[in-house]
């Protein structure tokens, strides 16, 4: 029996609403947005599901962390609703999703994800990381475009490799990866332009 | 599940006229709880053909296609794909496809809905074949004796 469940009830308008909120999150880094137009797929959180439903399609390759790629409900639903090709190697990915259950996957992943090239910086990957909270845990200060002064936010329990990566992100703009931290339906984005101090 | 059988009933549901399908469906007075997994949506498919059924394939043109997927409370998924842009038809066909997979409704639907609709379809096809056959012209040449 397949595990396919419902996604957006009204695909056109729901994805437009989610797109607008994701745009807010990306253009005002550190702002928490809520995505509430669809539920979760198996162990994949509602926030990640809606981000993928909105941004990914048959032309974007998606990499899933080990525990997600073993979950049949996640695979069936992503194939059915998103139709994105799922890739084995992170270096081929346009979107990468890391579950809370796989903090160890971050280290190798951050090395492998494509950051784009000078001619096509848009080919840098977008990394979605599930976290336990966006109100407690690791505190970071964000500054840069889209932030008036400094914005201080908390990102929950993060994998150590990610904290190290954020703290000394190479100043290689316009290359880089864009980060989205997801807790349930809530999401915070840290695009490649943002300077992070942990 | 038996795939050839399911193919056959999906084909019947897709090709039946909506008014016939709806009339028979309403007469059965079945109610069922279902979720729409993929709301009816319209798209295009390219039709390929071969000249005289033996030549090289070429693109004949595009047809509009409507598809839908529903899910019953018991987990059965019903699919439908049909030519044209009739969304209620696609949703109803998907629902009947799902119900055909349940033990409770299969026989009733098969007897009251699929079989009669298949008979109508076969009759129409037969009528068309007769109409074509009636206007068939066989060409032949008289021997005129030049070859002797």
Automatic annotation (TrEMBL), chain A:
Q: Give the organism, scientific name.
A: Zobellella aerophila
InterPro entries for the chain: PhnH-like_sp, Phosphonate_metab_PhnH
Mention one GO molecular function.
lyase activity
Keywords, ordered alphabetically: Lyase
Record-linked Pfam families? PhnH (PF05845)
Q: What is this protein called?
A: Phosphonate C-P lyase system protein PhnH
Automatic annotation (TrEMBL), chain B:
Q: Does the keyword Lyase apply?
A: yes
One Pfam entry for this protein is PhnG
InterPro entries according to UniProt? Phosphonate_metab_PhnG (IPR009609)
* Molecular function via GO: lyase activity
Q: Which UniProt keywords apply?
A: Lyase
Descriptive protein name: Phosphonate C-P lyase system protein PhnG
Natural source organism: Zobellella aerophila
Q: What is the lineage of its organism?
A: Bacteria, Pseudomonadati, Pseudomonadota, Gammaproteobacteria, Aeromonadales
In the UniProt record, what gene is named as encoding this protein? phnG
